[in-house]
Model the fold of this input.
Amino acid sequence: MSVRSILTKIIILPLSDFLLKRTISKHLSFLNKSQWWSKSELENFQNKRVKMLMEHSYKNVPYYTNLLNSLNLKPADFQKVEDLKKLPILTKEDIRTNFPDLISDKSREKGTFMRASSSGSTGEPLQYFLSKDAYSFNIAAGLRAWSWMGYKLGDKYIKISQNQRSSKEKKLQDKLMNNEYLFLKDIDDESLKDAIQIIANNNPKIIRCYPDPLEFLAEIILENNVKMNLKAIATTGNVLHKSAREKIEKAFSAKIYDGYSCEGSAPFFQCENHEFYHAAVEYAFSEFVDVVETESGVFQGRHIVTNLWNFTTPFIRYDSQDILEWEEKDCSCGRKLLNVRRIIGRDNDVLITPKGKRLIVHIFTIYFSKVEEVKQFQIVQNSENSIVINLIVKDSFNDETKANILNYWSEIIDDEAVKIDIVLKDEIKASASGKRRFIIKNF
Ligand SMILES: [Zn+2]
Done:
């Protein structure tokens, strides 16, 4: 361990906790131990937090006082995570409509919370409040997961983002944690080349970024034969496709550790063995609804989240709308945290045909990665019966390719009522947040 790592662990992180009224250091020590707990130890811990959460919410959060009263329930009816099923699912719309009533009276008095919002990649962002303790626990869970990719506290890392760093608190945190924050205003060749120069000058161990900008950076690195020397790359934010992963890993000569989280949920990260994403189950309880078994022992379902730490705006059985795929199998790393195999994406990233066939984004990305003549695609569903395939194509694209694509998708969709059209485009725009959307539903 380097001197900087030791200093960060025993002095810098506790000091920054003190200055910023956070509790990261304490939670990190706990999480480093609990990652090796048995399944029953983890379950007991979750059950204990559920009891605390329900007692607190009934007493201090008007929305839950009213909800439990209307269902004739008392906090004592919630002794374990399974008891949460006694409550209805909480939607994004429920949170917006009932927002003032979802804030804890107790937290408001103390003023120990901060504003938070979801990234809004697939719609309007959701605003809510997060207790500083929950925020700290979540950061600590992220730091624990980073240790799986060889990161040690104090190691230099670069976070590449298209949001400007404006808060003084976050800037101070960057300095203390040895983070170079790289603000990528535009994604054009010039900005990308500047970014590559900054990365090379800083010589970081880790880069953290959304997959899409990384893929563009990777293309320039490969074209110009730039040598990169990183330990690992942490991605999160949107679904990482296989082709993007391969390109990025080749360009940066480093392995990608992908992560996933949504508002209220535990952070999920791939472990050193890369078999699964592990959830920090000590932070939030994950349950799944509309579950289908896609192959023996492999399941897909919609991710429902109960946050066990945010007592300021409790998220209890919150519908993330994300579909995850998991497997009932232990990971070779030995951790008994939840094992998720794949993040399928938001409901919006799934095309649903009138006959109820679900076409996940991977089906399209895999298919189009093999069609030489196509550079980029986007699927737009304008109504249940109308699908437009927008394509940016190479000069070699011809009528035969077009007919092949149409035939292929007609067979897959297998529904005479559905009209499929191909529209050639010069440009396919990213969403306002800069994320690329593969499937757009317009009805
Ligand atoms: Zn593992």
About this structure: The pocket of zinc ion is lined by residues 271, 273, 275-276, 278, 331, 333, 335 (CB under 6 Å).
